[in-house]
Amino acid sequence: MGLVGVQENGNGEFGLSIGTKNKYRRMDSEVTEDFDDGSHHHHQEKRSSSTRKYVLACAIFASLNSVLLGYDVGVMSGAIIFIQEDLKITEVQEEVLVGCLSILSLFGSLAGGRTSDIIGRKWTMALAAIIFQTGAATMTLAPSFEVLIIGRFLAGIGIGFGVMIAPIYIAEISPSVTRGSLTSFPEIFINLGILLGYVSNFAFSGLPEHISWRVMLGVGILPSFFIGAALFIIPESPRWLVMKNRVEEARTVLLKTIDNEAEVEERLAEILLAAGTGSTEKYEEKAVWREMLSPSPSLRRMLITGVGIQCFQQITGIDATVYYSPEIFQGAGIQDKSKLLAATVAVGVSKTAFILVAIFLIDKLGRKPLLYVSTIGMTICLFSIGVTLTFIGQGQVGIAMAILFVCSNVAFFSVGIGPVCWVLTSEIFPLRLRAQAAALGAVGNRVCSGLVAMSFLSVSRAISVGGTFFVFSVISAISVLFVYALVPETKGKSLEQIELLFKDEHEWQGSEVELGDVVHLVQKQ
Length: 525
Known about the structure:
Layout: H1 2-8, H2 38-62, H3 64-87, H4 91-119, H5 121-140, H6 145-173, H7 179-183, H8 185-204, H9 209-218, H10 222-230, H11 238-243, H12 247-257, H13 261-275, H14 285-293, H15 297-315, H16 318-323, H17 325-332, H18 337-361, H19 367-392, H20 396-415, H21 417-427, H22 431-463, H23 465-486, H24 495-503, H25 505-524
Helix pairs in contact: 2-6, 3-6, 3-8, 3-9, 3-10, 4-5, 4-6, 4-22, 5-6, 5-9, 6-21, 6-22, 8-9, 8-18, 12-13, 15-21, 15-22, 15-23, 17-18, 17-20, 18-20, 19-20, 19-23, 22-23
């Protein structure tokens, strides 16, 4: 039947059904030996379908905050052209305006870990939307550069909350077998937001310069209304409920997200054990940070993997490529404004289209193969952009090659390191540390993003745009070695099993083989 069949079969550890006897049976079922009874099978199938739809809906609603981040990144690349003309800002102010979002969002991410442990994952998402909305409205109405920065400050903090909490929430609510695909949703929505931002630039570029950028930024307020509505539909994370000793509520949520009652009890027992609620251990804020500052060998491995992959995602220059794609294309020879914005729409389309490839493959091929394809492909593309801008220069060939390699670079990013880095940081940490350790990863991501975005123009002036891309290609080559040495395969394992994987280095090395055996076993059935 292959792996597709596996995913359809339910939500066990590997979603694995061997022969005709199912590994689990419903606790309240009166069927004993005759487990393959038609009506029971139909009931299980119907329930399985409804839980899949429910989890999918939760993942989509939780990812809506990511549209805001993506839209802001995409729209600013075009809006900055008009802001420059309207408010007469300097190049340094332009760099600060574009790059400060990432630096500011790290404060949101830092606060988000603690906030989500106190008020819950769900209401942290609500808070993120409210803060962002206020910032977007302030930017839209800004009469000066100073007010624009205040709006950017609020938007950055809102985005910081949003980007760190969505993958954690989705990882905590998803069954093991589809967790990779579902936790990639925020990355899809970031890409969708970037694409909408580019389209918005293109659509409103014909308006007078003092109105066009305000309309472009103002449209970003709209997704927040959908987020508000979503909060009345999605449940709280079962793992957070267990941390707060609300075990019955957690069981109710698990019954909605896992289609097998026996497995619900098994999963609940694992979560209780991981949360330390089954013993006298108490969840303490002080203890969390103390543990992270002087980590055990296994936690140190987790932190190096989680924070490292987040930093590599950004220092390979993806935000510079997205924010400053008009400047890159100008360097290749495109001068007309609307043609520049049309070329950036092509970048947005590639970035969004290829994220879908990752969604379909992440739970089939695994995390590590996608990371290899992505990092090696990006290294080649970044080097090629450097060659194009440095040696080929302006002209039709230069323009065609620049567009091809920039689009290929963002496509390779979307296939692997873009979504996989968020999947990994939301699944490798133990429950008691998950929110705050993932927040630390998000901070690393945002700091690197901000440094790249705020220094790109200055570095490009010093060593040329082509030279900057040669530097990015070297960093990308190092990221290939990082993936090889420090990222384990987590496909198909429960969050609690992944925690054990880091405790045993030998098991880490053997994890690919072990999972390969499972695939082989399933395909033989």
